[in-house]
Amino acid sequence: MSTALLALTDQQGVTFWVELAVLCASGLLLGAAARRLGQPAVLGELAAGILLGPTVLGALAPDLHDWLFPGDDEIKLLLSAVGMLGVFLLLLGAGLETDLAVVGRHRRAAAGLAAATLLLPLGAGALLGAQLPDRFLVGGADRGPTALFVGAALAVSALPVAARILDDLGLLARPFAQITLAVAMVDTIVAWVLMGIAAGVVATGQVDGTSLVITIVGVAAMLALTIGPGGALAARLLARVAPRGEVAPSLGALVVLALGAAATMGALHVEPALGAFLAGIIVRRSGALPAAAGEQVMGIVRGLLAPVFFASAGLQVDLGALGDGTVLLWATLLITAGSIGKLGGALLGGRLAGLDVRTSAAVGAGLSARGALGIIVATVGVRAGVVSADGFTLLVLFAVVTTLTAPPLLRALAPSTDAPT
What we know:
Layout: H1 10-36, H2 41-52, H3 57-60, H4 62-68, H5 73-97, H6 100-105, H7 107-131, H8 143-155, H9 159-168, H10 175-204, H11 209-227, H12 230-241, H13 247-267, H14 273-286, H15 291-315, H16 325-353, H17 357-368, H18 371-383, H19 389-413
Helix pairs in contact: 1-2, 1-5, 1-15, 2-15, 5-9, 5-14, 5-15, 7-8, 7-10, 7-16, 8-10, 9-10, 10-17, 11-14, 12-13, 12-14, 13-14, 13-15, 16-17, 16-19, 17-19, 18-19
């Protein structure tokens, strides 16, 4: 395809392909290095972006950094599109690995975990958000919406990051991991709705009750379809498209279903990639998808899209900001509150529901990584006028540090069995 069709100059086209190649290669190399050290690949992929960003390359070779990453809006848009596709396929693959029967057997635990892992970090984040120094807020902003937004930012769980870490560690099919993904989905949906309310209040000065009702009803309908007739409908579609179980048309039908679900969630003002996760669950329930189709999805994710996505997220991190005492203090407070909120909420909710301590703690560790979704949240906050550029830095540091600490916690806490006590 000619780059002219994308409204890029020849130089922009060259820069885009070079950036994509550098991000993919560095993500793959450092991801492989992380695996050799016994760590999940996502840590190496994030580290690749940090090394290529302002923290290292920008400080040691600023001219090379500016040449590689000139900050061109069109190129950023294309890289963002590649990253969005990566999240989409990653959650689609995670949905294909999610067995609702397992989640159903632990539905009491999942419900308790979802409530506790939402409320504790939400409350802690709201308290901190109400006390943030003025430099982290947009001038004249109402502290109420800011407190709600920060609380929701701490309460959100990064479903794609949790799925990738669990997959890297070989834990994705385990019962506790299935519960983790189900809880992460609920946490993410509720947190996005709360952040949307906060952003709407800042923009208009009031809550849009109609939009809120439409969102809640629409999401409930999607969930009902997922656990209800969706599997049978997907089986009927796959039987018509690929009557002999052919891989290519089955894969095409899977992607079309996921795109439709993602578009629906986006129209409901909820993270669109959650639709892909639900579509994956629906198709798994159909029992009609050839195993090779799911393997192809995850092969593309692991080999190209995930390294680019997580390396791109790392590019946005400037660890030099930690040299500012105020930033360091408040980043530490957010990280502590968010981590304790998730782990403490998981322990409380899990124990009340009958799960043992280790399983509950492992779920909390899986929920604690915010990753690139946390960076997206920070970006939304800046664009909506809820937080300032310094506030963006705080939320980005929070997202990266929680992602770096989650894998070793999961490795240490993952239970040998997942049976409730």
